[in-house]
Task: structure prediction
Amino acid sequence: MSSPAVDDELRGELREELTRAMQRVPDLAGRELTFRGLSGGITNRNFLVAVPGVRDRYVIRMAGNDTHLLGISREIEHAATVAAAGVGVGPEVVAFVRPEGYLVTRFIEGSPVSLEAVHRPDMLRRVADSLRRVHDGPAIPGLFMPFRIVEAYRALARERGVMIPVEYDLAMAIARRIELALLASPVELRPCHNDLLNANFIDDGERIRIVDWEYAGLGDPFFDLGNFSVNHDLAPDEDAVLLDGYEGTVRRPRAARLLLMRIASDFREAMWGVLQQGISTLDVDFVAYATEHFDRLLANASTPAFERALRDTAEG
Result:
């Protein structure tokens, strides 16, 4: 979101649709507007909106086709973005255009956070601070239960003729063991982002801001930590820095819970890739995407560290 000029100025039907949508935003109705596409995003199209001669810029987010099948609710995304903005982490919401579900936010001035940067101890602590602010913030509608989500993805994929990978049954057996350990040591559900990629981070110079709240919902806050960790291939010592920044200490049961959630995150990602094979029209190798996450899931669940994590989490 911090690098706006990636596409030529838009013309034709898309520009007309964007213009019609922005006319329903009170602050921008009747004004001359320019639009440019923003890079990134598989399930959405994002556009930078500018008013000639005005410093403030905006982003309009248009949902892709059939994203509801991925468990995405634009109403929940709107509510979660408002809540995240309220704690100083999400972008400020300017308007929500119904019934289309277009989200209009104020453009965040800042710098992208690189893959290399997220491994720095200072950056890990800043990310932890932003996540804690969100998790301590007001409740949002919707639930995020990763193992129920993978079951739903499987059913929807089968309905669309997608072959379910043979790894699914083994992964689900692993998931059952993880669920039992988590249920033995429950935590309070908190508002979570659930899709923590460095591409969704912007450094505004004061705080790490987080965008793209379409998978948000009330869930286990350690899913966010595990999701961020596995998405960026954090080492155990980096996980310790993240936990210390998040809780002010590193306790063995909490480190164990984070490790289990790394595996839960990969299961969700793998089945997301499976379902996308049946609904996406993009030129993306979702088979390879799913295989990559299944392979990492099974590798991480076949280690002594996984067995210790199950025990330590349950005893925690």
